Amino acid sequence: GNSVTQMEGPVTLSEEAFLTINCTYTATGYPSLFWYVQYPGEGLQLLLKATKADDKGSNKGFEATYRKETTSFHLEKGSVQVSDSAVYFCALKDTGGFKTIFGAGTRLFVKA
Amino acid sequence: GAGVSQSPSNKVTEKGKDVELRCDPISGHTALYWYRQSLGQGLEFLIYFQGNSAPDKSGLPSDRFSAERTGGSVSTLTIQRTQQEDSAVYLCASSLDVASGNTIYFGEGSWLTVV
Questions:
Q1: Which of A49, B16, B19, B36 is 20 to 30 A from A20, comparing alpha carbons?
Q2: DSSP secondary structure string, A55-106?
Q3: In B, which residues are within 8 Å of A44 by CB distance?
Q4: Do A89 and B101 touch (CB under 8 A)?
């Protein structure tokens, strides 16, 4: 069945460091891929998405490229800020499917 | 409404009691989803609605859980005879429809604690 695997956290970085959170997926079709973020005390919100191979989603300095050959959708940011501290969820929704499947989440702490 | 609205935001209940959690999706969204997030865990899919219909209920953890949606809008998740393992955040989300590329929008969740 469809699944999402993302790196375990927590990830602790200093401000202005480079961030990578790995995400790989298993899907039978051609899924759309998403990164959601959950800031402390808030609900989940969409960070970025890509709906087909080689698409790059970007938002707030974060980027992720849909790599079909490696079934990956790694999240990157060149220079993190303290305000980026949150839990990040990778997710997929398969063509013809009805539910969005989430990874376990990766908690990011950014120190000043 | 402007966003997905859930109530109550927090609920503490005694073991064995029934609870109802309410979700009001974004206006015009035909698809509605319920997820559960236990402490330190990912999101567990429970059920979805397309309109008022719930084609797949296999994600519900037990027969103590049920959900309904009326008028293509508000949904209620009911947990009967609550157990301590039901303690979690129950998240509701909605999207325009179930098409794969559509973003789903989450409410802030209902925090349920069973004591």
A1: B36
A2: -EEEETTEEEE-BTTTTB--EEESS--GGG-EEEEEEEE-TT----EE---E
A3: 43, 91, 93, 106
A4: no
